[in-house]
Specification:
5-stranded antiparallel beta sheet; rod-shaped; 3 helices; alpha+beta
C-alpha cells in the first residue's frame, strides 16, 4: 500500500511538468505600446499636444524635470521572455528637442514641421 501511495504521489508531482505546457497563459501588456512607425512621426519642434496626439499620454512625466516624458512598454508573454521597450522625449521651451531609448529617430526627425 505504501508503494502505491508513493507512486501516486510521485506521479502527481511530476505530472505538473507534463500538464504545464498544455495550460493557456495570457500575455500581460503594460504601459504604452509603441512601434517604430509611431516614433517615425515625431519631429523636432513638435509641441506637447502634438506628441500626445502621435504617441498618446506618457506613462510618467518626470516630476523633478518638467521637460521629460517617459513612454515605457512591458510585455510578459504567457511563454517566453519579457519584452521591455522605453522612449524618453525631451522638451526645450515646450517643444521636442530630442528622443532617446529603444527606438531610432527617423531620418527626418531633425527637420522641423512647417508651421
Amino acid at each position: 500500500m505504501r508503494i502505491l501511495l508513493a507512486l501516486a504521489l510521485a506521479t502527481a508531482v511530476t505530472s505538473c511538468a507534463v500538464i504545464d505546457p498544455l495550460v493557456y497563459k495570457i500575455d500581460i501588456p503594460q504601459g504604452n505600446y509603441l512601434e517604430q512607425r509611431d516614433v517615425d512621426n515625431l519631429r523636432v519642434g513638435m509641441t506637447r499636444d502634438q506628441v500626445r496626439f502621435v504617441l498618446g499620454s506618457p506613462v510618467s512625466e518626470n516630476i523633478f524635470r518638467n521637460d521629460e516624458w517617459h513612454y515605457v512598454f512591458r510585455m510578459k508573454p504567457g511563454r517566453g521572455d519579457v519584452i521591455t521597450r522605453a522612449l524618453t522625449v525631451r522638451f526645450e521651451n515646450d517643444v521636442v528637442a530630442s528622443i532617446e531609448g529603444d527606438f531610432k529617430p527617423h531620418d527626418d526627425f531633425y527637420t522641423p514641421l512647417e508651421s
